Amino acid sequence: MARRIMEGSRAVAEAVALCQPQVVAAYPITPQTHIVHELAQMVADGQVKMEFVNVESEHSAASVVLGASATGVRVFTSSSSQGLILMSEVLFNIAGMRLPVVLACVNRALSAPLNIWTDHQDSMAVRDAGILQFYSENAQEAADLTFLAYRVAEDHRVLLPAMVCLDGYVISHAWEVVDIPEAEQVDSYLPPFQPRYRLDPAHPLSMGMYAEPDKYIEARYMMQQAMERSVGIIQEAAHDFERAFGRPGPGLMEEYRTEDAETVLVAMGSIASTAKMVVDQRREAGERVGLLKLVAYRPFPGELLYQALKPARRVVVLDKAVSLGAQGPLGTELRALFLGRPRPPRISTFIVGLGGRDVTEAVINDALKKAGRGRHQGEFLDLRPDLELEGV
Amino acid sequence: MKEIRIFARAGQGAITSAIILALAAFEEGKHAFAFPHFGSERMGAPLNAYVRLGDKPIRSRSQVKEPDYVLVQDPTLLTGFNVADGLKPGGVVVVNSPEPPEALGLGLNHGRVVTVPASQIAQELLGRADRSNTPLLGAFAAATGEVGLDALREAVRQRFPGAAGEKNAQAIQRGYEFVKSKEAVS
Amino acid sequence: MRITTGCVAQPGTSQNYHTGSWRTGLKPRFLHVRCTACDLCPLACPDGCIYGNGRNTYYADLNYCKGCGICATVCPVDDIEMVPEEAPLLAATEEK
Q1: Which of A136, A373, B158, B176 has the most CB atoms within 10 Å of its CB?
Q2: What residues in A contact B21, CB-CB < 8 Å?
């Protein structure tokens, strides 16, 4: 194990290289570019052996890794924002063909208006594709989740693609201390990819066949079952992580000072880091506040979340995305957990940090303050009072 | 934990400054977190980079609003930006300028200003006045003691192996010595 | 019937599917009189069920022919005609 200081993108690139994918294809888009830039450099320098395929669009990048994965090799791709949604047509196919492609999504807002900064709207736009989605708090977790993503995705009880999400700039372009494991440790954690089916000219077969109404819903049901099974597989992988790497790794979620907490914040990604500071401050002031950081958004570990949040009196959800016309996706799903259950906590849901608006301690404190009273469902926080908004 | 805000123009190496500071602090056994407030900046556009240094893992990932230290790499940014905005009491503003601190008229009542002719040092040692980031880092080390001269020089050699790193290590030293000599006089 | 992970199918399954049952009244009759072996009819056939090699050798595999009539339309020498399902084919064709 070597603790070094490096850029978040570099940490992900090194983690990917340690997983030894045989084919990498990607198209540059800010802020994802550094990851594949680093990988391309490693290939050019002869440090890693993989086929790096330059393509003319994200749609092609996803298509290349689809085809390569179908031949039975480990693959990697990466994108952000518009690039990810351009991939989305292929991503649904990758999932339906049950190919364990691993993709890093460096989270960035969607156009229009054009914005290159971070929020979770891009990965949320493909949340229903059948892709496992993990959100990282920092560079270490982004690297660790890369190992976990391959392991869970390639498990024959799962066989679904996986997306490691990391917030643009605040993780991808930030330099911090990261512990990158040794190759032998990764090898002991991640067995070689054994495809269940693979394309081979000597033994032809077709994947992702046509399914009429008499079979399609069953195929979708099979994917749903795989997603549900993956909850246990992720727990298994998280458990084995410590044995392989000698330190705890990420799992479905992380509970931070939630024991006896009356108020529990729920957040995903880098804002969990700032939220932990707020929790510490509130605890020092004698308030019983905790944080539940959700790492696995797909599969959505509903029952475990319910059990974790049930004792709280107040739940405060911070969404870095909005389902326009409804509310924040995480807030909506958390609220649904408590429908028809006895004595649910008061759940307040907020939308924060869209398009890179800094989510400061003050914003999180504002959410906590508001949650103490009134009804807050998908309420936008930190809107500028000095701007005139035409038509509002 | 100490928080640092860097003012510069895109292309002047402010992000590299932040990284070198983080590398040097890490060399000394500290935790460090460095990140740019990246934008779609073009060469010459004003930008900020941020560094946090501490003995424990650093949690805060938001921009630095109340810095302990401010580095101003381009003195033209003193007009148009309140560089000392939010400066903590006892904070230090290190400015790349050939002028003495009092000539800048920053009028701080709870912190001090240190100047260093970083562009001149860069022109002399590196052949380019816009490579003022490394002498400014040396000045920062001398003025604040937050990071050691040796660690900074080692960090720049690590980041830029070969002749470039060596020259920049000299530039760091020159910036450092400039501030130390002024302190000795006063 | 079994659905595999990723809806994977073994090859050759479409051969088991006799789409010739879809014909709704007409089938092609190869006259073998003016044929020049231009090879347009097998190229144009959407089901790929026309076989032949050389003048006056072409025929359709009626297990798969859907009776669309494209072969008769593209034939430059009018050597293919569409006839009712019950009409006899030429002896030479039927032997094939």
Answers
A1: A136
A2: none
Q: In this structure, what DSSP letter does residue A296 have?
A: E
Which residue of chain A is at minimal alpha-carbon distance from B40?
Answer: A116
Instruction: List chains touching B (3+ CB pairs under 8 A).
Output: A
CB contact under 8 A, C3 and A96: no
Contact A207 C8 (CB under 8 A): yes
**Residues in A touching C7 (Cβ below 8 Å):** 96-97, 207-209, 211, 219
Q: What is the DSSP string of A76-135?
A: EEEE-HHHHHHHHHHHHHHHHTT---EEEEEE-PPSSSP--S--SHHHHHTTTSS-EEEE
- For each of chain B's 186 residues, which pLDDT tens digit applies? 999 999 999 889 999 999 999 999 999 999 999 998 876 667 888 899 999 999 999 998 889 999 999 999 999 999 989 999 999 999 999 999 999 999 998 888 889 999 999 999 999 999 999 899 999 999 999 999 999 999 999 999 999 999 999 999 999 999 999 999 988 876
The ipTM (two decimal places) reads 0.91
| Tokens 């040796």 -> residue | B150
- Return the H-helix or E-strand segment holding A16: helix A8-19
**Which of A197, A223, A230 to mutate to probe the C interface, most C CBs <10 Å?**
A197
Provide the residue type at C52 as one letter. G
